[in-house]
Write the structure tokens for this entry.
Amino acid sequence: MGDAAALDRRISPLKNFMAGGVGGACLLFAGHPLDTIKLEHPHTVPADGAVGVEVEGHQAFILVLTTVPPHTDSLGVSTKTKAGLVRLQTQPKASCSQYVLYTGTYDCFRKTVSREGVLGLYKGMGAPLAGVAPMMAISFFGFGLGKQLLQSDPSVPHTYSQIYMAGMLAGVFTTVIVAPGERIKCLLQVQSTTGQLKYAGPMDCAVRLYREQGIRSVYKGTVLTLIRDVPSSGLYFLTYEYLKSVLTPEGQSVHQLSTPRILLAGGTAGILNWVIALPPDVLKSNFQTAADGRYKGLADVLRTLIREEGAKALYKGLSAVMLRAFPANAACFLGFEVALKCLNWLAPNW
């Protein structure tokens, strides 16, 4: 039994990478239906025909996604959700006349299923899958690598501070890849609401940003992305590992934890992750979509937002991400754990 426990504690970043990809696919499978129905407040149709959603006094236009590259950010939120969030976070309330399209979440769900069947909830899932699975694979790889670097003896369990630091490393890994992609994504999402298309697509946007101001422009907002992802990723993995330990019955191994308890730990980790991540995400969206020279620095973004809209502006879009966070991240960690057990069984010496 001691050998089995030591084997469980031996970290393989490669296995984490593969299992993380499976976890990312499970995250998308659980969260995509909620993205499809938007899981928000009543949907309306403005005069210009774009579908919008009224959330806490702000208008977020969300059915203009044909110009946005579908993928997922480092927090596991697809562009279907983020498109609404970016517009929610950066635009004031619209004044155009509207009529109600959906009276609520259930009405949207019911009408979608009645018109398109259950498969309608998974419409457009292929493209986000190509982004979320590799991104979560990289995140879990960074976490596994961090645990491996901090583990001098496989027979000694990690401390919670080591787990937090390993989770922070996962945030660094994903930021290097996510930051330029989110800069481009935010610009494309915001321009789609104005009717004035400056960029033809993601590649055109990247090329023009580089030509106009160099690589620094492409990576604009990287510091805010780090501020968002590094501590939140640390808390994400720490919460999950801590709850697994707390929920493990006395006398049993944490690796024998039941499925419902894994789901509880994973879902709770997802919620706490967003509690920490959302304020810097709001700041990042405003900073990345602002005209050059509007803000003097990161502190100026915070001061301006609080002065104009109050502290509650830092949590714009909270209801949307929270309603999705629990089921999506619960599924993610369950998929990760199942895949990791299979890999340990198939290749115990990796």
The first helix runs from residue 2 to 9.
